[in-house]
# Entry
Amino acid sequence: MFLSEIAEPDPKITRLVTIVDQLKTDVDNGKIKPDWTVDQLLSYFRKYDIIIDKNDLYKMIKKPPLKNAISNIQGDKVIFKGQESKKAEVEPTTPDDQKKIVAQMAKNTLK
# Structure
């Protein structure tokens, strides 16, 4: 690490850290609903002059600061930290879904 990196941090990184921290806080406090798509997240960043594409986003969620706020991207859905278990609790299963799950489990057991 260079002394210049400590003395003069990159303003873009500082802005990204601030935006991600505010987004995570708003999701945790319920000000923003956690069911975001990748496109919505990219638009949110664009609103604050952070221009990235999907490929960059997939790389960035593996490193801080995004790693601290986003646990995963599944398909087109963004999964925020702390929302993984809440999502499982919120989604009730119907009797038809339960039958499908049991049938799938039985099928996998026979293999």
About this structure: Helices lie at 3-7, 11-29, 38-47, 54-60, 66-69, 84-90, 95-110. Residues 38 and 75 are 9 Å apart (CA to CA). The first helix runs from residue 3 to 7. The chain has seven helices and three strands.
